[in-house]
Amino acid sequence: MNKADVFLAWAPKDSIWSPWVVPVAFAQLNCADLAQSEAKQEAGIIPEWLKGTVSGGRAYVLDMPGEIVARMGVELARLGVRPVPIIDGSPSQGEFSIGPGVGATDVIGASANVVVDMTELLRSLCEGAAALCEIHLAADAMPAFLLDSKRMTGHRVLTDESYDNRWQVFPQDFPSAKFLLEHAVQRVLLVQGRKGQPQEDLAHVLLRWQEGGVAIESVGLNDGSSPERIVVARPSRFRAIWYRALAILGLRRHWSGGFGGFPMSSSG
Hints:
Blueprint (H helix, E strand, L loop, with lengths): L2 H8 L13 H4 L1 E3 L2 H5 L9 H4 L6 E7 L1 H12 L4 E4 L10 E3 L9 H5 L6 H15 L9 E6 L28 H6 L4 E6 L7 H12 L3 E6 L7 E2 L13 H5 L21
Parallel strand pairs: 1-4, 2-5, 2-6, 3-5, 6-7
Antiparallel strand pairs: 7-8
Helix pairs in contact: 1-7, 5-7
């Protein structure tokens, strides 16, 4: 599979949710020896009690560490839910090769200093692509939007030498409440490590959905508890016209359209 094939496995042309699959990470991704990597796909990332939440009218937002979120998406796909990766960070400055036991083979220097280590996330995107090609989902299957919960905190401390690929989500990255309701999505289950309020950037999205008539539920993967409906707290600068511009101050843009760059780099 080349990078276009991998992207299309996650964003097939017949899916109504494919316009929201962010292509940034796929643009640099080289899935080497995909057939061997596919065998590493593991089951059991999603507990049985969470599998029991799959039902008509319920979509998902999985705000989980990148190491597991795409694998969770593939497991949900096997239950009839369409995984939709919204990953707006660049893994490195150049090509990022993934294979059995391989990390960033072409950009070792950048990888060593990268703030958000995306190696395992990209590995699972490669591995999941082959699996998704074998799963036949309806064009209007309920979506599961996949986010890396470490998108702003990262894995390493930010320094003057860091490759800064932190990123945020914005309401423009998601379908509107109107679109969700028109396609039978009546409620959205937020899956995090712990039950409760969403991260602040995601709150801007979920509160708009809530105001538009979509019920928001929350569950903690580590809590082992049932979903509960929540009232999303109003985040700072909610609906401010300058919110996006202010939010990305300090984040570095990448040529592929997402975020990622060095402090004095032309890509920043």
